[in-house]
């Protein structure tokens, strides 16, 4: 039987919007809105997808109600969700009535912001088509700007736009690219944005792998049958949002969301410990022959390596109030060991050129600036440099794609020696310049490029094992 709702979706009002209704949003943010609706709140969410997957037909076919299955091997629960009260694909997105929306969130992936990785500025090439026809936009930035411009022309109310993607300082990024775009597309809009739009930075957390045939079968067996919108996720969830709002907002704190004045320590902790470890496993795990983050996290050699890595990453962090970095690192590793969540390393490795800067390169640069070694981080970047552009799917059919993939394949094919290749990769504008200027870091990366380029997965794993033992005995 489908999990029952304790509220009537038809009684909710379209007060919130979300751009990028992927697996994550359906499993995470919707669970908070669902908590509020169960407690009698009236916030419903209008979802908008500007790129595939097109879900509007599936949403209509099941009256917008779907299930989330959470499981950690010990506790398994099905929750019915009815707070996604509308869903629009690219075709009907321009018709969405934004006039009553006070609070909108985004998870449009790291590369959806029309910027270059490592920069907070708009990439004009990414929005050229929208700038030529700003009232028929196709990008998320062009779309939001057009919705704001319509609101401005209608004398509309202030609004909060909260980016929830795993990018550095996501509120500043969204505000920055939107203002840049608005200045080119709609002359009156930048001033209006300054007076009427808040861009809080936000940290969201729940591991939600893309649905596969087997996770869909598990969900449907556990939660009452066919469900095209249903998602499987881990039980853990966290949402921390900067206290910066332009108007009415859902009382998210009543559902456990933390509202804080300084988000940076929370964001850095999550990007560097949890996400950093996921990306490290994506690179080193694949080199050692693993396919899922569970396989990598339960490999004793890689979990010993993780102990060193988490300590080194934690040394770059300020501990957020109420957290304990050692416990957070331990929990991160345990979450990746969850036997019920199959998270393909190829999925995590996708778009790594947009992920590694905040997860690996920034902490590496901070360590070097303090005179501390950053060899663990160099190992991860070496793994990326050797694998970026390899789009071969894993045994479940999941490929890795990265906007830098083709360029990296070309550079790798032309590389003459490991030291030169390390210098070249570290010279890319993705990373803090300090990495390529530090002779020790370049040498560390070159050493691991040589080590990983040779041998088979078993030999690479043995090299990592030797390294961990050397460190333990040092
Ligand atoms: P997904 O692949 O299920 O969905 C991606 C969503 O982003 C889709 O709705 C798609 O329409 C939209 N999108 C993709 N490219 C876009 C573009 N260029 N412009 C506009 N919209 C675009 O992925 P999922 O799992 O929902 O993750 C999305 C993002 O959420 C991640 O990239 C990450 O930043 C964030 N996130 C994901 C977590 C997870 O475990 N899946 C956890 C925490 C954050
Ligand atoms: C993962 C994240 O695919 C990835 O890049 O590292 O989506 C991760 O699962 C989430 O950030 C967990 O909150």
From TrEMBL:
Keywords, in A-Z order: NAD, Oxidoreductase
InterPro entries reported in the protein's UniProt record: 6-PGluconate_DH-like_C_sf, 6PGD_dom2, Mannitol_DH, Mannitol_DH/Oxidoreductase, Mannitol_DH_C, Mannitol_DH_CS, Mannitol_DH_N, NAD(P)-bd_dom_sf
Classification via PANTHER family: MANNITOL DEHYDROGENASE 2-RELATED, MANNITOL DEHYDROGENASE DSF1-RELATED
UniProt source species: Rhodovulum sulfidophilum (Rhodobacter sulfidophilus)
Protein name listed in UniProt: Mannitol dehydrogenase family protein
Domain of life: Bacteria
Domain Mannitol dehydrogenase C-terminal positions: 262-446
Pfam family, one: Mannitol_dh_C
UniProt cross-references to PROSITE patterns, sorted A to Z: MANNITOL_DHGENASE
SUPFAM superfamilies recorded: 6-phosphogluconate dehydrogenase C-terminal domain-like (SSF48179), NAD(P)-binding Rossmann-fold domains (SSF51735)
Domain Mannitol dehydrogenase N-terminal span(s) in chain numbering: 15-253
């Amino acid at each position: 039987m489908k999990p029952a709702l304790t509220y009537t979706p038809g009684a909710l009002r379209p007060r919130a919007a979300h751009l990028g209704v992927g697996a994550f949003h359906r499993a995470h943010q919707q669970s908070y809105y669902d908590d509020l609706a169960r407690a009698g709140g009236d916030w419903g969410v209008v979802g908008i997808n500007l790129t595939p997957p097109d879900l509007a037909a599936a949403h209509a076919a099941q009256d917008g109600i779907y299930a989330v299955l959470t499981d950690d091997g010990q506790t398994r629960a099905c929750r019915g969700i009815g707070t996604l009260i509308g869903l629009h694909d690219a075709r009907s997105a321009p018709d969405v009535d934004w006039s009553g929306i006070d609070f909108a969130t985004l998870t449009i992936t790291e590369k959806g912001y029309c910027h270059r990785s490592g920069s907070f500025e708009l990439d004009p090439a990414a929005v050229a088509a929208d700038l030529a026809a700003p009232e028929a936009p196709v990008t998320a930035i062009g779309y939001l700007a057009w919705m704001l411009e319509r609101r401005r022309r209608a004398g509309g109310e202030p609004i909060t736009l909260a980016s929830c993607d795993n990018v550095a300082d996501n509120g500043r990024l969204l505000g920055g690219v939107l203002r840049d775009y608005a200045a080119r597309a709609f002359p009156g809009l930048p001033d209006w944005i300054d007076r009427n739009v808040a861009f809080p930075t936000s940290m969201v957390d729940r591991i939600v792998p893309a649905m596969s045939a087997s996770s869909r079968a598990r969900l449907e067996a556990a939660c009452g049958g066919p469900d095209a919108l249903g998602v499987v996720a881990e039980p853990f969830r966290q949402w921390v949002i900067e206290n910066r709002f332009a108007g009415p907002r859902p009382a998210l704190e009543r559902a456990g969301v933390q509202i804080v004045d300084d988000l940076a320590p929370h964001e850095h902790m999550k990007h560097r410990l949890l996400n950093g470890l996921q990306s490290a496993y994506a690179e080193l795990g694949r080199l050692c022959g693993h396919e899922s983050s569970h396989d990598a996290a339960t490999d004793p050699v890689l979990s010993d390596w993780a102990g060193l890595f988490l300590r080194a990453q934690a040394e770059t962090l300020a501990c957020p109030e109420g957290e304990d970095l050692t416990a957070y690192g331990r929990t991160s590793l345990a979450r990746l060991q969850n036997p019920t969540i199959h998270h393909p390393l190829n999925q995590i490795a996708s778009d790594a050129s947009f992920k590694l800067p905040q997860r690996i390169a920034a902490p590496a640069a901070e360590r070097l600036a303090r005179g501390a070694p950053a060899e663990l981080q160099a190992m991860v970047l070496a793994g990326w440099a050797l694998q970026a552009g390899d789009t071969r799917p894993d045994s479940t059919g999941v490929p890795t794609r990265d906007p830098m993939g083709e360029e990296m394949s070309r550079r790798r094919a032309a590389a003459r020696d490991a030291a030169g290749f390390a210098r070249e990769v570290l010279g890319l504008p993705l990373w803090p310049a300090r990495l390529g200027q530090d002779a020790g870091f370049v040498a560390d990366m070159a050493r691991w490029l040589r080590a990983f380029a040779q041998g088979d997965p078993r030999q690479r794993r043995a090299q990592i094992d030797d390294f961990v033992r050397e460190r333990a005995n040092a």
